[in-house]
Amino acid sequence: MTPIIAGRKALPRFKGVTASHAAVQKLPRLGIDGAAAGSPAWRQIPSHYLIATQDRALPATTQQELADRIGAQTTEWDTGHGPMYSRPKDIATYLHTLAKNL
After folding, report:
1. Which of the four pLDDT bands, split at 50, 70 and 90, describes residue 19?
2. CB neighbourhood size of 50 (10 A)
3. CB 85 within 8 A of CB 91
4. Least packed by Cβ within 10 Å: which of 16, 59, 63, 81?
């Protein structure tokens, strides 16, 4: 595997295709691009946003701003960007509780 340098990070080659090339590939269009989407569900259904306070990819302040824009009820957890991986049981309980209260 020969790395290709992109900026400062070396990206591995996979069967002649760089990882960066593979990462930006788009799925084939299914012909639904032009269809009207209608009103977003969050306008009619109560919305919730789990803020991951230790997220280094999307800061907690930005997450709060996004939640505020849609009027979502927020819950903060001291976790990183992937709570579904680090706290799967807690996520299941959280989602179950939200679903019960709809």
Report:
1. low
2. 19
3. no
4. 16
- Give the pLDDT of residue 4: 44
CA dihedral 74, 79, 85, 87 (to 10 degrees): -80
Mean pLDDT of 58-86: 95
CA 34, CA 19: separation in Å to the nearest integer? 30
pLDDT at 99 (0 to 100): 92
* DSSP assignment string, 23-72: HT--PPP-S-TTS---S-GGGTS--EEEEETT-SSS-HHHHHHHHHHTT-
Q: What length does the chain have?
A: 102
